C-alpha cells in the first residue's frame, strides 16, 4: 500500500494530465497552476487533492483504472490526510 502522501501526489500527477479536471480542481480550490509544486508539500493541500477525487466516483474510478491504484488506497489516504475532524467522510 502506498503512503497517503504518495497517493495524493499520484492523484495530482494524474490531474496534471487531465486538463479539464485540473482546471476544475484549480477553480474549486483557488490554487494557481504556478503554485502547485509548492502546494504539494502542504498536507492540507494534499488532503484537498484527495477530497476532490473522492467527491466524484467516476473520476475516482478513472484515476484508479489509469494508475492501477486501488480505491481502498484512496480511501485510506483520505482518512489519513483529512484526520479525525472528518470522521463521516469515509
Automatic annotation (TrEMBL):
InterPro entries: DUF3572. It comes from the Bacteria. This is DUF3572 domain-containing protein. It comes from Pararhizobium antarcticum.
Amino acid at each position: 500500500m502506498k503512503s497517503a502522501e504518495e497517493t495524493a501526489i499520484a492523484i495530482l500527477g494524474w490531474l496534471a494530465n487531465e486538463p479539464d479536471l485540473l482546471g476544475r480542481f484549480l477553480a474549486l480550490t483557488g490554487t494557481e497552476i504556478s503554485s502547485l509544486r509548492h502546494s504539494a508539500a502542504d498536507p492540507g493541500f494534499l488532503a484537498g487533492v484527495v477530497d476532490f477525487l473522492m467527491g466524484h466516483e467516476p473520476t475516482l474510478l478513472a484515476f484508479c483504472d489509469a494508475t492501477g491504484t486501488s480505491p481502498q488506497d484512496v480511501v485510506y489516504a483520505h482518512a489519513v490526510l483529512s484526520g479525525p475532524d472528518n470522521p463521516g467522510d469515509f
